[in-house]
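Following up on my earlier thread - several people asked me to post the actual chain instead of describing it. Fair enough. Here it is, all 349 residues.
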Amino acid sequence: MTQATKATPSERRGGVGGRRLADAFDAVSGLPALFEARRRLLGLCDRSGSTPSEVADAIEADSALAIVIMRAANNGSGPSGRTGGVREAVESLEVERVRSLAESMETYDVLGTPGATSERSERFRRHAVAVRIGAERIGEVARLPQRDELAVAALVHDVGKLVLEQLYGDGPESDLRDVSPDERARQERREFGIDHALVGAVLVRRWGMPKIIAGAVERHHAPDATGHAGAIRLADMIVHHAAGDPVQVESMREAAAALELDDAALNTLLFEFPHASEKRRRAAEPCPLSMREMDALRGLAEGKVYKQIAQELTLSVSTVRTHLHNVYRKIGAVDRAQAVLIARDRGWL
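Reply from S.P.:
Thanks for posting it. Predicted structure:
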């Protein structure tokens, strides 16, 4: 990225022109990748037998890599149902195209010559990956769908901060790192008239990413955020809490409640992070089951009988039975045990 220029007081109060904003977007779009992350990705591209999931895991270790691959897969001109996850993008582009894109990127090396650009890029990457890990775990606990899209949204949730740094510099007035995540967004709105979540969403849409990703980025500091935005909001707080940064307990409770998670679930998430497994099972193919069918199947996986599952889902026993018969038919299982094994093997559970 290019070095940010210091904004004048009038620019801070009154905003900046379209040309400067476009330049800031272009600079952030050229975010360099960590040298080691790109090296590992290229090694997988060279290795015979590497799977799309392995390649996707390497890409998701670096926001810059994810941005380049997702932009190439979506290219800004597709329909509303665009490529949502990195694995899907890898399958769409194929390995040679992924390799070509990675080779063309600029990189930085944390063991190389230090500089403002590399320090800013590494700080951004570390936080983004930590929030991705936290959001994925929250997505599992809250049973959110489309978790590959959630991973991408987490990796790019703070790109707006980089845009604001390009526009306004990194002086004392804009150094808001010592406040809680939500308070930082409020201070940005007071100082700049806009916050990094909204700016980031504009850029993510400009990159052509799906609505679900842009929407999560835009709302990840909203007090009433739910779904993907809510998971990122809570993960962001958990990451800051783990780093010893100021985070209000009531704000964490509020974010968890919006995802229908109680204090026990929140305490577990806080205890697990950052020791929760970074390696998640990926679906080798799209899951053919509806949300209700998946809920019923999870009940079976937890050893529950039809009556217990029906009570938890507020459904009749006959409806649960119908859902599970549909599950068996769709995935080719002959009984509950085989259905659970198939679903776990394919990464749906």
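The chain is about 65% helix and 0% strand. That should answer part of your original question.
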